[in-house]
Amino acid sequence: MADGGKIAITSSGPSLDAPMDERFGRCPCFVIVDPGATAVDPVENPCATQGHGAGIQAAKLVAEKGVGVVLTGRCGPNASDTLEAAGVTVVTGCSGTVREALDAYNTGQGKA
Amino acid sequence: MKQVVIISGKGGTGKTSLVASLASLAGTSVLADCDVDAADLHLVVQPSPVERFDFIGGKLASVAEDACTECGLCETLCRYNAITGNGSVPDIDPIACEGCGVCAWFCPERAIDMVNSVEGEWYRSETRFGPMVHARLNPAGENSGKLVSLLRAEAKTIAEDRGIDTILVDGSPGIGCPVIASITGADLVLVVTEPTLSGLHDFERVVGLTRHFGIPAQVVVNKSDINEANARRLEELATSLGAGVAGRIRFDSAVTEAQVRGQPLVEVTDEGAAEDMAAVWKRIEWSLSVGGMIK
Amino acid sequence: MRIAIASGKGGTGKTTVATNLARVAAMEGRRVVYLDCDVEEPNGQIFLQPEVAWRRPVTLPVPRVDAEACDLCGLCGEICEFSAIVPVGSKVLVFPQLCHSCGGCRLVCPQKAITETPREVATLSGGHADGVEYLQGLLNIGEAMSPPVIRALKAAAPQAELVVVDAPPGTSCPVVEAVSGCDKVVLVTEPTPFGLHDLELAMETVGALGIPCEVVVNRAGSNMKATRELCARRGVEIAAELPDSRSIAEAYSRGEMAVEADPDFHDRFVALLRRIEARR
Fold first, then answer.
1. What would the CATH number be for the domain defined by A6-106?
2. How many Å lie between the alpha carbon of C248 and the closest alpha carbon of chain B?
């Protein structure tokens, strides 16, 4: 269940300097951080090669990790519905490296 | 990075021949042959070398004979007529089995396992025009939609890794799951059709699909000179449905000749249909560069 | 006899062959049923022009959750292989388009909180076209799955001495569903490299189903060698070679039937029908 604490950024790799992957359901990796980015937890996305339902399962995964906000490029409707039901906020249209997306969000430049 | 997906609604309108020539005109692009149950693009773009991977389509029920008590419950629960017991150890029809797992879940002896089902294979290769992903679904194979999604994701990853700006996707006929999986997330869909009543009918349905998903579409009327009146009707229909017109390609026997030579038409000649294809490519390039999609 | 007209490659002439065979049979006063199983893009009606007598929806059962009775145990989400029912947060989400109607979630729910409700995915219709009994399935735009619709169409079809099944293009599950239960498959091809390649794929599919097949080569010309060699190698007879004809192509583009546009084609289709039926 989302406790609102953590932020997940869809990423091509496990580090803060990795470029984002704009796809929510099939990104190779979620980089999960606390808002201050003091604890960085990269989680491989097991749904990346799944067929239909990848986004839904990815949504469940991030919710179960206690994520409250997702920063991504785009997110399909089924995944969006699942995140919403889990109380997770999705910010789409993010880009750059993981760190850059996080900074942009923290300085309030991300679209809510 | 832009993804252009070429579909047709009706089959046999000339998608693959056009994709091959667009690949040649586009410089370097990532090619994805998503017509996975009748893949032909490789015949004219000559991919090599080829890296091969198994495609796991889903699960298949498998009965452990020693554990089975022949109670027959699985047969009554299966909604796909995939299980026949006839009072002995049940037989699973691999073509009918949907992999839903209900039989395995409820078997009182836990005698049924759901095992990965290899439904085909997919390939990663190189062509003169750029990297290519393609696949082959096994005969009577299942889950073409999933395989198409896999190829699309792979093409995207390759394009990002190698800094290639364009992905060209050869789609399949129809409007069902493989087509839906081909067009989601596309920047532009090109609908290749022919000036026949069948072509008109099927075009309307396939543009209904692109509208349903909110993806910009343009029509290419192939073999346009077979019926000028219908060619015009198609263009008018496209416009009335909010789709663009990318151009007309005339009927040309050179298309088949190029196919026999295993080459894209535009490499064999620059006249006739080849000239028309080059004009279509110019139109696509312009559409993609004027951001936010003009129809 | 139940004959399926199929092909690997689209656009080779399945509907041309299927509709014209049905028409010549009807012209001889025989009872013939034509089933348009290309439910994504059915074109038989363009040529046969039936008077439609009935229409009815095809529905698939999808889960409905009684939120009051549900205790969020999550078992429905565990049993579902397709992510169609997803317990998340304090709700159970249902994604009907992903549902394969297996019934598992309803069976597994300990609170009996799940019932099944019909979801419309397609329309069946039927009528008569100059002596041909005509049935068609039409998949709703945006729906992904043809096989359940094809199954419903086949179930709606009457028995008859001659049933012509117009199959969709390709080699995967929709074709398998259309062709299953037929006595023979006629594979329509064209003598081009793509046609040849896809013909071999189609032969493998039909072979995997254990149904005998024959080939019709459409738009045949001087380039027949490779097709004849493939058929010889696979032990498959060529039942007809329909010549390439610009006038027939133009007639087709206007929605006209070949057997009505051209007496030579009429004779060819009569001969083809005899030949298919003779070799059961």
1. 3.30.420.130
2. 11
Asked if A86 and C83 come within 8 Å (Cβ–Cβ), the reply is no
| Inter-CA distances, B257 with B16, B101, B136, B194, B226, Å | 14, 49, 25, 20, 19
| Structural domain for B83, as ranges | 57-118
Checking if the pLDDT of B43 tops 50, the result is yes
What the block records as the tokens of C83 is: 């992510």
> C171 and C52 in one domain?
yes
B166, containing H or E segment: strand B166-170
C-alpha B237, offset from chain centre: 24
Alpha-carbon span C161 to C163, nearest angstrom: 7
Using the predicted structure, report yes or no on whether residue A1 has a pLDDT greater than 80: no
- Asked if B146 and A52 come within 8 Å (Cβ–Cβ), the reply is yes
Determine contact: C53 vs chain A, CB below 8 A.
no
Average of per-residue pLDDT values in chain C: 94
Interchain CB contact of A23 with B (< 8 Å): yes
CA distances from B79 to B61, B76, C12, C146 (A): 13, 8, 34, 16
Same domain, B16 and B70: no
Residues B137 and B280 in one domain: yes
Question: Which residue among A1, A56, A63 places its CB closest to the CB of C95?
Answer: A56
B142 and B193 housed in the same domain: yes
Q: What is the pLDDT of residue C246?
A: 87
Residue type, B88: S
Q: Do C264 and C230 share a structural domain?
A: yes
Residue A25 pLDDT > 90:
no
In a domain, B230, yes or no: yes
Mutate to test the interface with A, among C86, C88, C93 (most CBs of A within 10 A): C88
Mean pLDDT of C5-27: 95
Work out whether the CA dihedral C36, C37, C39, C40 comes out positive or negative: negative
- All residues of chain B having their beta carbon less than 8 Å from the beta carbon of residue A21 are 160
Domain layout of chain A by residue ranges: 6-106
Check the CA dihedral C72-C78-C83-C84 and report its sign.
negative
Based on the fold, state whether residues C48 and C169 are members of the same structural domain: yes
Residues of chain C above pLDDT 90, percent? 90
Do B63 and B39 sit in the same domain of this protein? Answer: no
Give me the pLDDT at residue C177, please. 94
- Residue A2 clears pLDDT 50, i.e. is over it: no
User: Are the beta carbons of A51 and B160 separated by less than 8 Å?
Assistant: no
The pTM of the full predicted model, rounded to 2 decimals, is 0.90
- Domains: count for chain C: 2
Mean pLDDT score of chain B:
93
Mean pLDDT to the nearest integer, B105-115: 96
pLDDT-derived band at A109 (thresholds 50, 70, 90) equals: low
Q: Name the domain count of chain B.
A: 2
> Does the bond joining B49 to the residue before it have cis omega, within 30 degrees of 0?
yes
> Would you state the pLDDT for residue A110?
47
Specify the CATH number for the domain of residue C177: 3.40.50.300
Domain range for residue C89?
A: 67-112
Tens of pLDDT, residues A96-106:
999 999 999 98
